[in-house]
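Trying the structure run again after the queue cleared.
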Amino acid sequence: MTKQSKRIRILHVEDDAMDSKLTQLILKRLGYNNFDITTVPGAEQGLEILGARDFDVIVSDYKMPGMTGIEFLEKLRLEGNDIPFIIFTGKGEERVAMEALNKGANRYITKNGTPAVIFDTLGRYIQEVVEEKEREEETARRISQLEEINRRLQGASKSLVVERRGKKTYIDTFSFINEYLDLIILGLIMEKPMTVSDVIEAIKRKFGVMVTRESLSDLMDGLEEKGVIERRFSKESKSFVLTLEKGMEGLLRGPTFSREMLTKFLRLTEGFKISEQ
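Done. Tokens:
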């Protein structure tokens, strides 16, 4: 793993002042210049500073006056704090490391070996657990977005089914398109990338309604900012095309959200015009 430039905020819980200074010095010499390390002498002080400041990861010694590193970890997890946690154990304390993993630690390091190897491993572990946490949060965010899309799709599909079962129905297409335009765009670009002109033409052909570029602009900007769609330049069409963002497309194929829902949604709108008799 390469060393990164993104700042990582580290809470180092270590009661030995010399060890804490040594940790900062060696990590810096090894090239981990993006680490912002704050050191406190015990778990009690760690809990106090966590209530006032944000950190990306905790590196904690095991043997400390008062609360041990394991007890510190347990308290955090019981409070629902899932901050990445690395336990730094001394020689002959391998059993402590395994206990820490069982109680929610992300990594452990024993102080066996040369300082360069030990602290380079610590640096790599810090980067790894922070990146893992960021991926988990990004996945959770995207799943939340997809669940919301899924909920809206189900509501829209159910509404259309009810309308179609009536003997005489009148459907306000303009209101429908305004409410579900994001879902329509996703459905249209699900199978193939489309230019904005393609989307406008498809909506006109499908619903008999002309949508302006201006009315699409803010919506597409919002979907792009959320990481749902992306715009790529197509050499073939010599223009920018809309497509599902790669990560989102992967989630669409997963168990949380079914691509079939978008297909069903578009199928229910086939032949959908200004009004139905």
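The mean pLDDT is 79. Worth checking whether this holds up in the mutant runs.
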